[in-house]
Amino acid sequence: MKKINKTFKYLPIITLLSVSFSAIAQEQEMQYFRPNNENGINVFETTKNDTTIFNKMKVKVGGNFEMDFQGLRDQNTATYLTQPGFVGNVNSLEPLTNGFDLPMANLNIDAQLDDGVRVELTLYLASRHHEDTWVKGGYIQFDKLLFLHSTFINNLMKSTTIKIGQFDVDYGDQHYQRSDGGNTIYNPFIENYIMDEFATEIGAEMYYHSKCGFFLMTGLTNGELDPTVLAGTKIDSATKQPINYSPAFHGKIGYDKQLSKDFRLRVTGSAYSDQAANSNTLFGGDRTGSHYFNVMSNQNIANGTTLSDANDYNPFSGRYNPGFTEQVNAFMGNLFLKYRGLQFFGTYEIAQGREITEINNRQATQYAGDLVYRFTAGKENFWVGARYNSVTAALYGAPNTITINREAASAGWFVTKNIMLKGEYVIQTYLNYPDANILNGGKFDGWMVEASIGF
Question: If you average pLDDT over every residue of the chain, what do you get?
Answer without folding.
Answer: 91
